[in-house]
Amino acid sequence: MERHILGYKCRGCGRVWYPNRGVCQDCRGIEFEPVPLPKNGKLLTFTHLHNLAADFEVPSLWLGIVELSNGNRITGQLRIDSPKIGMKVVGKVEPVRQVGYQTHHGMIFYKA
Amino acid sequence: MRDVYVIGIGITSFSRLEYPLVEIAAYPAIMAMKDCGLTKVDHLFVANMGASRLNHQTALASAVVDHLSLCPAGAECIENGPASGASAIKAGYMAIASGLHDTVMVIGAERLREANNLEATDFVASLTHPLAEQIYGVTLPSMAGMFTRLYMEKYGVTSRHLAMVAIKNHDNAMFNKFAHLHEPISFEGILDSEDALTNNPMVADPLRFYDMCPVSDGGACLILASAEVAKKVKRPLIRLAGVGQATDTHCVHERKEPTDLLAVRGAAAQAFKMAGVKPSEVSVAELHDAFTILEIAESEEVGFFKKGQGHIALAEGYTGLKGKLPINPSGGLKAKGHPVGATGVGQAHEIVTQLRGEAGERQVKNAKIGFTTNFGGFGNNVVALTFIKEK
Ligand SMILES: [Zn+2]
Predict the structure, then answer these.
(1) CATH label of the domain that carries residue A63
(2) Same domain for A97 and A45
(3) Least Cα separation, residue A78 to chain B (angstroms)
(4) Do residues B337 and B179 touch, judged by C-beta distance below 8 A?
(5) What is the ipTM of this complex?
(6) Which residues of A touch B205 (CB under 8 A)?
């Protein structure tokens, strides 16, 4: 089954939030329903990080912020050779970090 | 509300300190008591971020108050990430302004280097969003890197401007015996020479090693008092005239304009308004330059320069020690050091030293109004303070 990152749609005003929050910023609503976030978007900014926490086995990571096609923004890892601001990207939900026995899944972006 | 004064100050070296956290907290407190002649206070606030995780110590304030033989004075810890220090000063302000107490000791203390550098960076990264940021390996340097790239694209800031911040603050720290780094640096060494990439490697592209503050241990202390107490103490009268604080989204990606630091803007506006002071009247400022880009961005957000103009003022020497508005005469976080929970108290220590005219070779001439910005998270919780020297 294809994995998704979930956004949280306010039942009061319909705005989708990511990550979840207890109270809607726009209408103060407190009820939300999970909705899958789209996976394609545009790269807003990025960095190549060389000092990682000890649990990472790779020497460096590309990290970025992406604006998804529905307008939500998300932080994720990038697997792109030479990323450029504004480029089109597409995400996959894959393992991003292993902490002890726990595998965290998150969004990894590739060139669209 | 009652007026609040800073009557005593003390500080340790910001570096690697090989003594227990309680003593890192106690030493500057003893210096501050000596400074003002007080031997008792009504209350203690102890700012710290990492004791429970890095030093296996909780309830630090209870240990510190007894170590200083100040029981039964009240004491508590304030943890607000890297803005803990200024938050504790704010708590002290509220306690005195409200009339609850007449004297409050505000201590900031941190012992980060009990952990190694990677553990310390990972510890600070624990302030990011657990599911939307931390799981990806996001650290504070990586946020600063992403922020810098946008700033460069939008405002024309270059690596050279960033290096100017580092060089200036390393130069200033040469005159500060408490600073972590006593190491002058040059464009040649960190940017232009063939060895520059070896001397100054990329850490979070486009930020390099010398764009980052060091990981420091350190402690600092202010003793705050009511006007009645302050006027009996034979020290220059420095009033804590403005206190501001504002917050922003936990996730950086949720900010509408990712190059804005709205919490800095909001906190500064409050601290200026409360003091009845305009940004253009400030004589000296300590801004939270954990990364070189932050000194530039904050100098704009607090109102010293228009948005996008901070790097130009910097390049013109406006913010140098001999400039019109010296920023980070202490060396800043960049070179004085960044013992996270203690940093905000350290910034205030520098401003009080400057306003008293006791800063020696780094003294800013005719310093009358001082300002600090202590930046928590990646700008999601910011405390700003305005200090005025009174006749
Ligand atoms: Zn809503």
Answers:
(1) 2.40.50
(2) yes
(3) 10
(4) yes
(5) 0.97
(6) 47-50
